[in-house]
Amino acid sequence: MAKAVFYHAGCSVCVDAEQAILPYLDRTKTDVETIHFAQHPDKLDEAEKLGVKSVPALVLNGTVYHINFGASMADVRKAVGK
Amino acid sequence: MAKAVFYHAGCSVCVDAEQAILPYLDRTKTDVETIHFAQHPDKLDEAEKLGVKSVPALVLNGTVYHINFGASMADVRKAVGK
């Protein structure tokens, strides 16, 4: 089973990607977890270590896929006060 | 049934995204077509009209999702001589 983590910061580009793409991932092949940085600012370091530079980002089997551009991680940190 | 078109230019980022992401799209919900610009340079105009600015890009239900960055469309045009 593949592991997919979708990193979300509440930005409109994030919301669009979440609603438009995640429903099309095959849940028989991958577990999908969505992490909202506003609710889980403790995940910022983990995401950056994985290579996440902007949101929205989908980390699939450990590889980061930045999907369009909503906000930089620096701006996400400012927004959540971390 | 949703329509997904994956635009590919043979770049390593394109190959990675193709191999890593497309297998996880739910084929019971979406038809997936892959277009290689090297083989179909006639699709360049169509892609740009849809809003594709770089490859790899996934157009899902008409909305463009640029996935990481492999090459600009200008560079793709140079590469295929169009």
UniProtKB/TrEMBL annotation, chains A, B:
Recorded coiled-coil stretches: none
Domain of life, source organism: Bacteria
Domain Thioredoxin-like fold: 5-66
Pfam families assigned to the protein according to its UniProt record, in alphabetical order: Thioredoxin_3
Protein name listed in UniProt: Thioredoxin
Source organism: Brevibacillus borstelensis AK1
